[in-house]
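User: Here's a structure from my thesis project, written as structure tokens. My advisor, Dr. K., wants to see whether a designed sequence matches the one we expressed. Can you design one independently, without my sequence as a hint?
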């Protein structure tokens, strides 16, 4: 009775915060209860992620969260990407499938602790996989979660601690280890369909798992898993304001609707203004032209605005007339069309009583179809055509007879635009394990090759555009009269195939040593030899494609490593673990990373644990190979003097700015110091909880040269340090003598001073049994970030937690301070119902890497004091077993149809943040399925 009272008190204290804060990802803390010695002899030992020594007590000195196949099914999530990215520790730099404008479009990645995707190591069955063939932002390597088979998953173990002492580079923030079924007997199939209440996104999915053979009696087991999923697109026009337009004038925000000459954003009907050559310009029609004094714009199309445009004649920012066009509604996509599928097979054979061998193979393909708005004739990069004009000799210049140029705003509506991405991953693994003279040993070979086919269509070729205007071969007045050959000449398809490879040989052995007061000491040793390569060619050779980023990444390296782990149960209540790994890289040299951990149990229901470790992240081939990249972000100018000089006109509104980076052969690897300190409680069999504090400090952090200080120096008229260049745009036609806005910032990678993040993880699980065979499970998991800061080489410290920074990182999603979820499941006979509440905290709409002064990235007055709201939504899932063979499943995702908070600054979604609030823009979503098991 005393123990139960104590348990109730502890449960009340731990669950009290739930009434105020909901945490992200429902993953239970593992049981910390240690079996008695006589029980341990009967229990099978297992290997837990973060340790190479098999153990009975699965609670290690490092915090590990396990997501079982049953939990995945109860969550209603249908892809590995959705499951892993819902982990509460996933934060800044996470990559969603919906970010179709990024370099890594069509892929998804996880970023534990907010240290970006390149500091989280993703393993399959404890072994590395090849990275996505294209780097995020042209910089960061990561494993595409879409290429991991969900149907064959046994569990996912998430190590929320540094693990370079065992796994080597990239395990600074933690490890996600996807563990597939080691064997399977039977036949199991699923079929699901789903659709959004608000239209779009219809999905269909099927899986099949079939296997046979028993290792004990037949000495073999073989199974195969097949899965397929196809998702229809969701278009912005299927959602309401403000997600279906970029005209926010009705809520006192900016009006960036298409067609405005002042914003160099033409409609498919075109606008022309009489102009002359700028005597200080280049002297040709591509740039340097000026409007004739007093001239006003007029619609180019002879019959005015068509069905997609609206005539505007009363816009003081654009004297004259133009056709406004809502490109967001007409072409914008909330979710691209995606089709993915593949198969996984495994054959295991028991060679003798002590030796087992297996071979597995998988092939997965993910297709993404992205639709883009028509290409604009005016772009600032890589070739500036913002001042382009039709010369007097062009047949479609309405002012040519008077010998005048026609400044033109125009979108090529007769040329469809978009990108097709086909990602493939082929992986083969072979392993042998056994025992010999008290040693357990294993040897594994991994061969993994990925290739990504990219087809970009509808983008303008600069030289072809100039030629078409010079020769008059493109019909601007009647685009429908253009031949297919004329369209293909001005906008040819651009194709490339990018590849990545990982080949490795992993060797490991472990054994028990002498007996200590707390049990037998354990030792594990191992070695690894691996080859890594990446080849991502230019998609835009010669920078001839207008408005399109560019990147090339080529590199190869060999890595050899040796590691050890020693575990000493010094007392029944005290365990100490020591590990270390030596790595030799052919491109960056040698490194050694140690780790020490402890677990102390003063009582059988309380465990204190902690770790201290060193870590390393090797430079990616984008950072130190034969590589360079140019990407784009949205720039909101906040410099008061600049805005005043341009009268705060359309030239100063948010626009696309190019960011170029070049690899640095002398770049150093990132190194980290990690420590964790936590407590695990299990006062009774129905309640377990863990609270873990983490502190990670990285030095030699690899970043592009800082753009924020570069912009500040540019506006202040100050020089930038060597290696940083700001390229100005063409002058503002309305104020040609004022300082032009910046068009491109070019930098080289540098080692910044340091990065530091601290925070707290909470995991609580409670389960109860009631009368009438009712079983109840409550699982709460959450992460609170206390600090996430970057100290620049000049000593400037930028704090990003709870803000929209780092803004130039990936999709600019920001660093929410709190993420978490609370799942509650009721099982009653054949029925199971789960409700999961997900929460992501709001943030200040600032990004110090974008604006070092801390200015608001949003121009909406209603956003003052510059805040973005939190996002909380609720998923409801259920299943009903008709009999032992057939189960009906269903779910209502985002059951209360919660809308995403307004986020004008995010450049991955139109006025919303898809990284944290994609469920909100999708809206209420229904799924219905059936599971058949034979």
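Assistant: Designed independently from the structure alone:
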């Amino acid at each position: 009775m005393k123990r139960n009272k104590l348990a109730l008190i502890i449960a009340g204290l731990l669950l009290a915060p739930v009434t105020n804060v909901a945490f992200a990802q429902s993953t239970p803390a593992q049981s910390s209860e240690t079996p008695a010695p006589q029980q341990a002899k009967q229990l099978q030992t297992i290997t837990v992620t973060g340790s190479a020594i098999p153990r009975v007590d699965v609670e290690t000195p490092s915090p590990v969260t396990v997501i079982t196949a049953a939990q995945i099914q109860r969550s209603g999530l249908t892809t590995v990407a959705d499951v892993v990215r819902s982990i509460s520790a996933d934060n800044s730099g996470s990559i969603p499938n919906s970010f179709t404008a990024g370099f890594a479009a069509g892929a998804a990645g996880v970023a534990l602790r907010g240290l970006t995707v390149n500091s989280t190591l993703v393993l399959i069955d404890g072994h590395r996989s090849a990275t996505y063939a294209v780097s995020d932002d042209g910089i960061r390597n990561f494993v595409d979660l879409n290429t991991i088979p969900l149907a064959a998953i046994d569990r996912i173990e998430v190590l929320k601690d540094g693990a370079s002492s065992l796994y080597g580079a990239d395990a600074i923030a933690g490890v996600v280890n996807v563990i597939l079924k080691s064997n399977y007997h039977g036949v199991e199939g699923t079929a699901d369909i789903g659709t959004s209440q608000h239209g779009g996104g219809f999905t269909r999915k099927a899986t099949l798992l079939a296997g046979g053979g028993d290792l004990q009696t037949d000495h073999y087991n073989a199974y195969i898993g097949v899965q397929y999923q196809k998702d229809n697109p969701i278009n912005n026009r299927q959602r309401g304001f403000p997600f279906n337009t970029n005209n926010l004038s009705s809520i006192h925000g900016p009006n960036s609707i298409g067609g405005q000459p002042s914003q160099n954003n033409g409609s498919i009907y075109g606008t022309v203004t009489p102009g002359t050559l700028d005597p200080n310009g280049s002297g040709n029609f591509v740039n340097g032209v000026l409007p004739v004094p007093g001239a006003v714009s007029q619609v180019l199309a002879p019959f005015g605005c068509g069905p997609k445009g609206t005539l505007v004649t009363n816009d003081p920012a654009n004297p004259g007339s133009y056709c406004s066009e809502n490109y967001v509604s007409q072409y914008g996509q909330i979710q691209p069309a995606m089709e993915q599928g593949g198969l996984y097979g495994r054959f295991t054979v028991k060679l003798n009583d002590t030796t087992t061998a297996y071979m597995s193979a998988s092939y997965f393909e993910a297709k993404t179809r992205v639709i883009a708005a028509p290409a604009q004739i005016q772009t600032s990069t890589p070739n500036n055509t913002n001042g382009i004009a039709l010369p007097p000799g062009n047949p479609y210049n309405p002012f040519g007879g008077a010998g005048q140029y026609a400044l033109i705003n125009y979108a090529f509506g007769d040329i469809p635009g978009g990108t097709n991405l086909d990602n493939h991953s082929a992986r083969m693994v072979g392993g042998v394990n056994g025992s010999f003279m008290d040693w357990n040993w294993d040897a594994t070979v991994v061969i993994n090759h990925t290739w990504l086919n990219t087809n970009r269509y509808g983008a303008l070729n600069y030289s072809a555009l100039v030629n078409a205007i010079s020769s008059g071969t493109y019909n601007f007045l009647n685009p429908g009269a253009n031949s297919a050959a004329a369209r293909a000449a001005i906008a040819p398809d651009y194709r490339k195939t990018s590849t990545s490879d990982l080949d490795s040989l992993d060797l490991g052995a472990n054994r028990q040593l002498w007996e200590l007061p707390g049990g037998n000491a354990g030792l594990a040793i191992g070695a690894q030899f691996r080859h890594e390569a990446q080849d991502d060619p230019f998609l835009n050779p010669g920078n001839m494609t207008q408005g399109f980023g560019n990147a090339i990444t080529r590199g190869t390296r060999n890595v050899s490593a040796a590691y050890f782990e020693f575990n000493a149960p010094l007392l029944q209540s005290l365990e100490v673990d020591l590990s270390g790994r030596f790595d030799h890289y052919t491109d960056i040299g040698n490194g050694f990373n140690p780790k020490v951990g402890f677990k102390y149990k003063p009582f059988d229901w309380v465990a204190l644990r902690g770790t201290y470790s060193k870590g390393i992240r090797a430079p990616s081939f984008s950072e130190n190979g034969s590589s360079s990249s140019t990407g784009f972000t949205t720039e909101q100018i906040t410099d008061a003097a600049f805005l005043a000089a341009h009268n705060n006109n359309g030239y100063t509104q948010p626009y696309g700015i190019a960011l170029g980076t070049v690899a640095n052969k002398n770049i150093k690897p990132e190194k980290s110091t990690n420590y964790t300190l936590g407590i695990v409680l299990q006062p009774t069999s129905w309640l377990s909880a863990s609270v873990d504090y983490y502190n990670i400090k990285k030095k030699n952090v690899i970043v592009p040269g800082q753009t924020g200080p570069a912009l500040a120096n540019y506006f202040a008229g100050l020089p930038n340090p060597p290696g940083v260049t700001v390229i100005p745009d063409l002058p503002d036609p309305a104020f040609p003598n004022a300082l032009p806005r910046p068009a491109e910032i070019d930098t080289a990678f540098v080692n910044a001073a340091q990065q530091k993040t601290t925070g707290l993880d909470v995991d609580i699980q409670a389960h109860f049994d009631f009368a009438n065979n009712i079983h109840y499970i409550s699982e709460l998991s959450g992460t609170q970030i206390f600090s996430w800061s970057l100290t620049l080489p000049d000593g400037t410290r930028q704090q990003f937690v709870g803000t929209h920074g780092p803004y130039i990182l990936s999709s600019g999603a920001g660093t929410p301070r709190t993420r978490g979820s609370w799942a509650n499941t009721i099982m009653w006979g054949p029925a199971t119902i789960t409700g999961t509440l997900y929460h992501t905290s709001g943030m200040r709409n600032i990004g110090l890497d974008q604006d070092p002064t801390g200015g608001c990235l949003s121009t909406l007055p209603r956003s003052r004091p510059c805040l973005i709201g939190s996002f909380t939504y609720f998923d409801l899932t259920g299943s009903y077993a008709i009999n032992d063979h057939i189960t009906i499943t269903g779910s209502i995702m985002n059951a209360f149809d919660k809308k995403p908070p307004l986020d004008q600054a995010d450049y991955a979604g139109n006025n919303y943040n898809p990284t944290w609030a994609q469920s909100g823009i999708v809206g209420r979503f229904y799924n219905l399925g059936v599971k058949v098991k034979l």
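When you compare it with your expressed construct, this may help: The mean pLDDT is 89.
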